[in-house]
Design a protein that fits this description.
A: alpha/beta; Rossmann fold; seven-stranded mixed beta sheet; four-stranded antiparallel beta sheet; 11 helices; 24% strand; B: 306 residues; mainly alpha; MetI-like fold; two-stranded antiparallel ribbon; flat; binds adenosine-5'-diphosphate; binds magnesium ion; P-loop_NTPase (chain A); ATP binding (chain A); membrane (chain A); AAA+_ATPase (chain A)
Chain lengths: 287, 306
């Protein structure tokens, strides 16, 4: 894995990389320890705009490999926007515009020569609302394999493995050909997780994957996230602080206006944050 | 206190009853006119048909392959007219379904909002052009082009009619299909994009299947429009009721036959005149069936998004 940005700075745009360096903190750097040793994703001075409104201001943080990184903060502070800028899902929003660097293995994904389709094959995504296709469970899980040309060999085995890893196989083993829409909300979300991991991406982005679920289904998803981090780099948005504290290794706290205020080990954020505003937010004084 | 009471209690009939009762009947009468007209048409068709079938056996009508109700020797097999209608319908479907579907996919998935704003109204204008103009277009443009390629083609031919009807119903397919495709929730598109699908893959294997009921319903409605289409085919295909596989031959559709008899001077109590009602009823049943199938497809395969 590329862990230093030395080679990558030559491919990023001069304006954005010239004045920045991985070794020194920038004006934008949040409190805490925004640099990690084994970063898969590095955000450097990332600004995102929707039309004339700026939703993210100079986000500067690293996302470590095979760990769970939680993004927390009050709603509207730009967590989803940041997540979508990692796999360029923001490209699909007409008015969205991104400036600055978002590096994946040192390569700025906003460089002209980056193919967003190829990027998304390496960085899977699970959405806030379960969104299975109106197809069979099997076809849902196999969809990524098909579009990525990984459907040679035993697709069925790959489908079962993915369902197994998403802790869903036991429940749906006998109904792989029935519609994914027939499952309960929690099962649908695990189906979506199985669908995301089936093509074996490197990173999995999850946008409040449990917010639409009941407590039992939520705790299943939480267990799953921890397990997934053994093999995948997981970035999870949540507005549930207990959840972030339970499942994540690193926590990034975004606060109103689209600023990353503090980024550090999860323990540190929850036990002894540097920022008073973060402390207030975590202890529930505002938010 | 007591004043408040009197202003909210009904003085025998409520305000709503007094004001809206009358309006309700106005609306009801208007609706009634439509219903009665439809019933009237059906009754007229059935009555005329009953007279016709007193002279002609239903079996002959439905199975005969020779249609000559006004010129001797008389013959009342409706199949040549049905065949003519079938050729026009199938031929126009071969044009309108691919082109209309592709247009719908383009408008729903590819076109930028600015482009869509121009193309959608243009298609609607296309749909509003009087069909006689399309018939004239077939005679003066499509047929000469066909004749250029196949010099033996006559002035009236099935191909020209099928092509012009096909063009005519493209807006119907594209507009209704586009409505169905646009109503597919973005969550499904995002799911596919998030898995590394291309725009083409998202369009063809997510959006189209998810909107299939609406898309298929648009096909069926367009086909029933093609079956009922009159002026354009009357001008383009001629008046030769015959069962032929050659699209360059002249044919006659059920509708074109009805025009021919309607404007001719056959006497009102002749079998030729009565045949108008039998053919009209046949046409009515066909299009009614198509519309019902379309409704059924739509409700039967309504996708459940939550
Ligand atoms: N598609 C969009 N178009 C316009 N503005 C948007 C869009 N998505 C998000 N925003 C705006 O960007 C800001 C951040 O939103 P979001 O990233 O969804 O926050 P969070 O996920 O933290 O709740 C909000 O002010 C929101 O209104
Ligand atoms: Mg959000």
């Amino acid at each position: 894995m590329t862990t230093n940005g030395g080679g990558s700075r030559t491919v990023s745009t001069p304006e954005s990389s010239g004045s920045r360096s991985d070794a020194t903190m920038t004006d934008n750097a949040p409190l805490g320890s925004p640099r990690v040793d084994d970063a898969v994703i590095e955000s450097r001075g990332l600004d995102v705009f929707y039309g004339d409104d700026q939703a993210l201001h100079g986000i500067d943080m690293d996302i470590p490999e095979r760990k769970v990184t939680a993004l927390i903060g009050p709603s509207g502070c730009g967590k989803s926007t940041f997540l979508r800028s990692i796999n360029r899902m923001n490209d699909l929003i007409d008015i969205a515009r991104v400036e600055g660097d978002l590096r994946f293995h040192g390569k700025n994904v906003y460089d002209d020569d980056v193919d967003p389709v190829a990027l998304r094959r390496k960085i899977g995504m699970v959405f806030q609302k379960p969104n299975p296709f109106p197809k069979s469970i099997r076809d849902n899980v196999a969809y990524g394999l098909r579009v990525q040309g990984k459907d040679d060999g035993d697709v069925d085995a790959k489908v079962r493995t993915a369902l197994e890893r998403a802790a869903l196989l036991d429940e749906v083993e006998d109904q792989l050909d029935s519609s994914g829409l027939d499952l309960s909300g929690g099962q649908q979300q695990r189906l979506c997780i199985a669908r995301a991991i089936a093509p074996d991406p490197e990173v999995i982005l999850m946008d409040e994957p449990a917010s639409a679920l009941d407590p039992v289904a939520t705790s299943k998803i939480e267990d799953l996230v921890e397990e997934l981090s053994e093999e995948y780099t997981v970035v999870i948005v949540t507005h549930n602080m207990q959840q972030a504290a339970r499942i994540s290794d690193k926590t990034a706290v975004f606060l109103t206006g689209g600023h990353l205020v503090e980024f550090d080990d999860t323990n540190k954020i929850f036990e002894n944050p540097e920022s008073d505003r973060v402390e207030d937010y975590i202890t529930g004084k505002f938010g | 206190m007591s004043q408040a009471d009197t202003t909210i209690t009904t003085g025998g009939s409520s305000i709503d009853d007094r004001k809206n009762g009358f309006i309700k009947y106005v609306f009801f009468s208007c609706a009634l006119v439509t219903v009665l007209t439809t019933l009237g048409i059906i009754l007229v068709l059935i009555q005329g048909s009953i007279e016709f079938f007193q002279h002609v056996s239903i079996v002959e009508y439905l199975t005969g392959t020779n249609w000559s109700p006004v010129i001797q020797p008389y013959s009342y097999g409706v199949l040549p007219l049905v065949w003519g209608t079938l050729i026009i319908t199938v031929g126009s479907a071969l044009i309108a379904i691919p082109v209309g579907t592709a247009t719908a996919i383009y408008l729903s998935e590819y076109a930028e909002p600015r482009v869509r704003k121009v193309i959608k109204p243009t298609l609607e204008i296309l749909a509003g052009i009087p069909t006689i103009v399309y018939g004239f277009f077939a005679l003066s443009f499509i047929t000469p082009v066909i004749q250029f390629v196949f010099p033996q083609t006559g002035t009236f031919n099935a191909a020209s009619g099928a092509i012009v009807v096909g063009i005519m119903i493209i807006p119907m397919v594209s507009s209704l299909s586009e409505d169905a495709m646009s109503s597919v929730p973005d969550e499904l598109r995002n799911a596919a994009y998030g898995l590394g699908a291309t725009k083409f893959e998202v369009s063809t294997n997510v959006v189209v299947p998810a909107s299939l009921s609406g898309v298929v319903a648009s096909y069926i409605l367009a086909l029933s429009r093609a079956i009922g289409e009159t002026m354009a085919v009357t001008l383009a295909v001629g008046m030769t009721p015959q069962i032929t596989a050659n699209p360059l031959d002249s044919i006659q559709t059920m509708t074109a036959y009805m025009v021919q008899i309607g404007i001719s001077d056959v006497s009102v109590d002749s079998i030729g005149y009565q045949s108008l009602f039998a053919v009209g009823l046949t046409l009515f049943i066909l299009t009614l069936a198509m519309n019902m199938i379309s409704l059924w497809v739509k409700s039967r395969y309504r996708e459940e998004y939550q």
